[in-house]
Amino acid sequence: MSSQPPPKRSIAVIVAVLTFSLTLAIRIWGINSRLWLLSDQMRDWTIVQGSFWDLPLIGPATHVGGYTLGPAFYWIMWLIRVLVGPFFDNLPHAGGIGQAALGSLADTLLLAAVWRRTGLLWTALAAVILVATGGYEVCLASVIWNPVVGATLAKIATALVLLDWHRGSMPRRVATAGVAWAAVHAYTGAIYVAVSVFLAFLIDPLVRRDWRMAKQNAVVLVVVVVLLQVPLIVHQFAREPGQQAMGAVTDSVAAIVTGRAQPEVDKSVRGYLGAVQFIQGTPWTIPALGWILVICGAVVAVRYREDAAMLLITLMPAVLSVVGYALFLAPLDHYYYFSLMPSAVLIVVLALTSVPRGNVAKWIGIALCIAAVAVTPARIRFSRTLHQMPEYGPLVQGSRTVARRGVSMRAVRTEFPLPPTGDPEYIYRLLGGRIERSSRWLAVIAKDGSVTFQDVGGT
Fold this sequence. Notes:
Elements: H1 9-28, H2 31-34, H3 39-47, H4 72-83, H5 92-118, H6 121-132, H7 135-140, H8 146-162, H9 170-186, H10 191-207, H11 211-228, H12 230-238, H13 247-257, H14 265-281, H15 289-303, H16 308-314, H17 316-326, H18 341-354, H19 359-383, H20 392-405, E1 411-414, H21 426-430, E2 441-445, E3 451-455
Parallel strand pairs: 1-2
Antiparallel strand pairs: 2-3
Helix pairs in contact: 1-5, 4-5, 5-6, 5-8, 6-18, 6-19, 8-9, 8-10, 9-10, 9-11, 10-11, 10-16, 10-17, 14-17, 15-18, 18-19
C-alpha cells in the first residue's frame, strides 16, 4: 500500500502547530511548581551541566543492575541544557520542558505520518490524542528520566518509517536507523520498536523486490549500530572489573538457555496487557482488552496486508515484547512498555477505521476523535495524582532568595519534608550558591518559599 497524497500545506501547518502546542502545554503545565526531582533526576541533570566531552560513554544506571547501552540520553539532555537551560537558570525544570518539547515533536510527526499514510486526518488525530494524553505518560513526560526519552525516540522512529523515510535518500535512512538505535541507548525497553523499524528496513524493500535497497539498508543498519556502540566499546576496555551492561537481562537469558529456568510467557502477556490498561485505560478499566487487541490486530493484518512497513510498525512491537519479556525473569513494571503504546493505540484505531470505506471511515474517525477529547480531562486529572513534588516550587523560590544573599551557607534546610532521596541544597548549588560547613549562616526554607536565616556562629 502506498502513502496517501499529502494534505494541503496550510491545513497541515495549522494542525501541526496546534498538536505541538497543546500536547506541550499538557505536559509542562505547572512544572515549575511540582517537578518530580529525586536522586536519578539530580544525578542526570548534574552530569549534563559540564562539557559535552565530559559526558559518560554509557547510559544511566538501571534499577536491575548495569547500565543502558550508550550515552544518547545524556547527549540529548546536554543539548536541552544548552538550548533551553539558559532561559530557566539551568534549573531542572528546564530539562523537563526540553524533554516534553521533544515528546510533542514526536507526537506531531506521528500525526503527520498516520495522516499521510491513511489519508484520514480524524483517525490520525484520535490516535495521537490517545497516545499523548495517557495519564501515566503525562505525569512522567516532563520528568528527567531516560525511559521517557527512549519512548520518545522510538515514537519518532515509528513516525519516520510511516513517512517512508526508510525508502528515501541515504541520509534519511541513516537518520531513521540512528534514531531507532538511540532509543535503545536511552532505554533498553525500546529494543522492540527498534527491531521492528530495522525489520521494516529489510523486509519492505524485499516485498517490493528492490534488492539493491535491501542490501543498502542492511549495510546502513550494521554501520549505524556499530558506530553508535563505539562509546560503549571504549568504555568496556576501560571499565572496572565486574561492571556489566544489562546484567539482569543477560543473566535471565543465560538461566533459560542453560535450562535452569523456563520462559515466563504468561507473565509477559499479563505484563503487556496490564501496561496497556494502566497507561492507556486508567482511570477506567477496559473490558476484554486482550481480545480487543487480538481482533483489531487481525483486522489490521488483513487490511494492510500489502503494506509491510505498516504491519511491522504496528503489530511487530507487541509480538516481540511478549517474546522478549518472557525471557526476562525479573518482575515487569508498567513503564517498561512506554515505547509500545503508539503501536497498541494504532492497532485499535486503524482497525476501527479501516474496514469501512469513504465517508463511513471518516465519521468513525470523527467519533473516535471526539471520544478521545472527551476522556482527556479525566486522564489528565489522574496524571496529577502520580509522581508530583509540590515541594519543588517553594524549594526553588527559597533557593533563589538564599542565592541572592551572596554569602556562603553552612547548610540549606526546609521546614517541610522532602522525598527520601530529595536534597534541599541541590537547587541552591545550581544557582551558584556555595555550601561551606564553616559558614555562620543556616538557611531554612518555609512552605510558602520564604526563608529564615539563622546565625549559628562560625567555626
